[in-house]
Amino acid sequence: MASAYKPEQARVPPTLQLPVPPVNTLFSPLFQFNIALCQLSVTMDKERNIAHARKAIVEAAEKGAQLVLLPEIWNSPYSNDSFPVYAEDIAAGGDASPSTAMMSEVARSLQITIVGGSIPERCGDRLYNTCCVFGKDGKLLAKHRKLHLFDIDIPGKITFKESKTLTAGENPTIVDTDVGRIGIGICYDIRFQELAILYAARGAHLICYPGAFNMTTGPLHWELLQRARAVDNQLYVATCSPARDADAGYVAWGHSTLVGPFGEVLATTEHDEATVMAEIDYSLIELRRTNLPLEKQRRGDLYQLVDIQRLNSKST
């Protein structure tokens, strides 16, 4: 009976095998490493925000972090009025993008991987909400532009329309780093389980979601969504929020968190500025997938996830 389920057809193209983690200095797979989630306070002073983020990254590395995750929109207030003012030309680099220049320099000098939260990006006449990933050599490994724009209206609670100023990205982002294969989403991207399923099918060990949930949806959905994305796909999920500023135009929920592949909260914090340090152990992914062999039980005879980009690349 099980053979009729056709699990290999539930994901098209078929799921990629989970890659072996990179080797460490002892020439063995790096299954365990430390991650830091830097929940930062954000002000209207961009230079201060950049210097403050640099200090937090350095302190995290000194405590043993090999991967550092920053919050969504950490160099700017989170508002449609601010995005055009604080936006940087990431492609130009240098003085045109002081935030990414800082992350590149620190990643190289400290020999760590940085998932750089997100900053407003200017590209031609368009603005994006963009996450940059830097490797241990300081090179830009990937750039994720937020795919799902935060356009919501909850009467009497919160109304926000990112699409007033921002353009949605076009490509899912998965990147091989010195600490494994990482999928990237930004805040509202976490609500779309299809993206996480796609990342799992592409062999991600970890999905990082820098995000700034608000005081309405944060208490209800922030942890719930993280645990759902992790347990459904049997991988790690890490989130990082700005610290809460009750006087800001947009008030963040906070609660940066690491969730394991069994849906368990491994580390979290409250809403004040803090750095969450935790250990990731990739061997637990295989353990949980052995305990619950979901991949072998999918009903490919009933449903499919089609990764259009991978499908098109195989046919060309």
Notes on the structure:
This protein has 316 residues and is of the alpha/beta class. The chain has a single domain (33-314), classed as Nitrilase/N-carbamoyl-D-aminoacid amidohydrolase (4-Layer Sandwich). Helix content is 25%, strand content 26%. It contains eight helices and 17 strands. The chain has helices at 46-62, 83-86, 98-110, 193-201, 218-233, 283-291, 294-297, 308-315, and strands at 11-12, 32-39, 67-69, 113-115, 119-123, 126-134, 140-145, 151-154, 158-161, 173-177, 180-184, 206-210, 236-240, 257-259, 265-268, 274-281, 305-306. Strands 2, 3, 4, 5, 6, 7 and 16 form a seven-stranded mixed beta sheet that branches. α1 (46-62) packs parallel to α3. The longest helix has 17 residues, at 46-62. The model has no long low-confidence stretch (mean pLDDT 95).
- Supply the number of helical segments: 8
Gap between N and C termini, in Å?
36 Å
Shape: globular
The level-1 CATH class:
Alpha Beta
**Which consecutive residue ranges, at least 5 long each, have pLDDT under 50?**
none
